Amino acid sequence: HPNSRYIQFLQPCFLLSYAGFVHLRQISAGSTVFSHQSGPLTYLIIKESDSVSKISCRLAVLQGGSPLKQIAIVSLQQNLSSYTNMLTALHCSFRIIRCTDSLSPLSDGLLLPGSRDCTPQLYGQKNNSSRSLCLEEDLLQLSAFDRYCHAGRPILGIGKGMHLINIAAGGSLRQHIGHYPHDAVRICSPLRTESFERFHETSISEGSMLEALYGTSLLVNSSHHQALDRIGSRLDCVQSAFDGCPEAVQHRSLPILGVQWHPERLLPIKGKTDCPSPLADGSLLFRLFLAFV
User: Fold this and answer.
1) Residue 149 contacts by C-beta under 8 Å, 6 or more apart in sequence?
2) Which distant-in-sequence residues (6+ apart) come within 8 Å of 87 by Cβ?
3) Full-prediction pTM beyond 0.70?
């Protein structure tokens, strides 16, 4: 191939192939995701600019030969066990940030969890149906997003976290959607055998990171009364409920992903449901997030 950068890119590709990884999909300009062909599903994302030595180090991390990755969870809520349990299960360390002074030094990635509603004044609206507001938390999370975004670190927003990502990008919210999708069903929660959650089907955009993980349709849990309205700058809606409600956004060039649903509460479930779409395995989304680190 006449492109020397592409030739340089072949050497790490051979390295990954030797280590048991197979090419999965190019997800953005210069970035490609590989998946391991056996054992626990593991994702590794590399760029054309990555050196062979850098990729070798990342392979060593996946094989347990280097220190664990550390994710910063920024929130003022007390119960974060569903998020910390998921990270612990994936052998990832974390630290919980509750004040601006603790944001430095930056961790390897940023997790913005779900919790309260966002303060409407942050996206230019008066409060008409938002509840459980905490401006202190909003400003802390926006500050964290700004620092990690400028540093090019991976960011995953869940529930309110996706709303914060959209607001930071200049977008807005619908303060109250007032209904669940018409096809919502109640299924026993995979993590709490005596608890039930609402699930509904969604469609996923072809060529997106989520489509690489789950295909073009997916059953996800639903526990929100707000939704994205105007999508922020350089964000694309890549997953929607069948009533049009945005379920995920992806940044066009940075490792930033937000989902409306709650992957931290979803593990593989045995047996079948009455819905044609597969039930989301939330650990896959967390693995993809960690692959960006």
Assistant:
1) 155, 168, 254, 256
2) 71, 93, 94, 111, 286
3) yes
- The position carrying tokens 């009364």 is 225
State pLDDT tens for residues 144-169.
Answer: 999 999 999 999 999 999 999 999 99
Per residue in 205-238, is it b (16+ CB within 10 Å) or e — as a string?
Answer: beebbbbbbbeebbbbbbebebbbeebbeebebb
- Residues near 18 by beta carbon (within 8 Å), at least 6 away in sequence: none
Q: At what angle do helices 282-291 and 81-89 cross, to 10 degrees?
A: 70
Whole-number Cα distances in Å, 60 to 42, 64, 131, 195, 224: 13, 6, 46, 39, 39
Judged on CB neighbours under 10 Å (0-12, 13-18, 19+), 178 is exposed
What's CA 211's distance to the chain center, in Å? 13
Let me know the angle formed at the C-alpha of 15 by 14 and 19, rounded to the nearest 5 degrees: 115
**List of residues 6+ apart from 77 with CB closer than 8 A:** 113, 115, 116, 137
